[in-house]
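Hi R.,

Here's the chain you asked about this morning:
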Amino acid sequence: MLKCKNCLIPVTAPAVSINDSGICNLCQLHSSADHNKSESIRKAQEMDLEQALERSRRSSPYNALVCLSGGKDSIYLLYKLKVEYKLNVLAFTTDMNVPPVAWENIRRTIAKLDVDHLSFRPEEEFYRKFYRFLLKNQEERGAVRTVCYVCAPLFEGYALRAATEKGIPLVLAGYSPGQPDPERMVYEFPEHRICQTDWTPPELKNSGLFTDSELLRFWNPLRYPQGTKFPRYLAPFHAWEYHQEVNIKKVVDLDLVKNAVSASPIKSNCHLNWLLMYSDLKNLGYNPYMPEFSALIREGKASRLYWKIMMPIINTMIKYKFGLGRYVSENLKWLNLSAEDLNITRPKKKEWDYSTNEANSLPSAKSQE
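And the predicted structure, written out as C-alpha cells:
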C-alpha cells in the first residue's frame, strides 16, 4: 500500500494524496506556523487546566474523577494528579470489554497509588446488542467511527453521572492529542453538550430495537433538577506536552505497569478493536487508527519507526487472524456475526446534533436481530 514517507498515512485514507516524492498533502501543508499556532493553543489550554485543578481543591471529598481504562495515558494521568498535583482523586472504570492486561494495570496502579476506585459494569447483553446492530449498519466512515462513537459517549456519560451525583467538579480523561475526533471534543466537551444536550444516539433510538430503559443509559442532563451543577470534562494531555513513548516509559519506570508490552496500546486496548479494524481494512482499505497515529508522527508526538514496524504487523495479524488478530474470530463468534455481516449501509452521520433526534436512514425492523 502506498503511504507517505514522512508520516506513514496510507493513500487510501480520506482526502489524502501523495506526490511524486512520496510526501502526502497533509505533511506538505504542515508548517512551522501551524506548529506555533498549535503550541499557542496548547499553552492557553494548559493555563486553563492549571486554574481548573487549583479551583477543584475546594471540593470534598474528591477534587476530580479520573477515567481509568488501564492504558498508559489514563494511568500516567492518575499518577500526575495524585502524586504531582496532590489531588484527592476518584478513579473510575467502565468495565466494557476491558482486557485482562488492562485490568492487571488498573489493579497494580490503584494499589501503588492507594486511590479510591469505582468500577461500573453495564449488562453485557445490552452492549453486545448495540455492537451487533451498529456493525451490521455502519456509516460510511466505517466500523471504528460507527461503534466507538456510540460506545465512548456511553462510558463518558457514566463518568459524568458518577461525578454529578458525588459533587465532583472535574472529569478528566486520558485522551491523547487527536482523540477523540475534534468534531466531538478538543481539550474539553463544550458546556452545552454536558448541561443541555441529550446524548442518546438517534440511530439506536430510531431502530426500534432498544427499550426505554436501555436508552436511559446514555447521558441526558435534562433528567436532572433545574440548578444541578455539572462537572467539566477535560482531556489534560491536550494541554500538557505529550509523547506516546514518553508516557509508556514513565508508567513502566514508576512501576505502575510491569513492562512496556503491558503499557502498549496494542495490548491494553479493547479487544473489540481488532474486529473493528478488520471490518475497516475490508471495507475502507486502510487501518482506521493510522490517520490518528500519522498526525502524532507529523507533530513529533509519536515514533515514526515504531509505527512503521508495528502497523504492518498489526494489519497482517488482523488479515490472517493470528496472534492478537485471533480476537477478530472470537468477537465474530461472541456477536454471532459473519464477515459478510460487516456492512456500510448509511451515509456519514450528522455529528452530535442529538437535540434534533435526526439520524441517517437506518433499517427499523426488528429483523435486524
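The two ends are 36 Å apart (CA to CA).

Let me know if you need anything else.
M.
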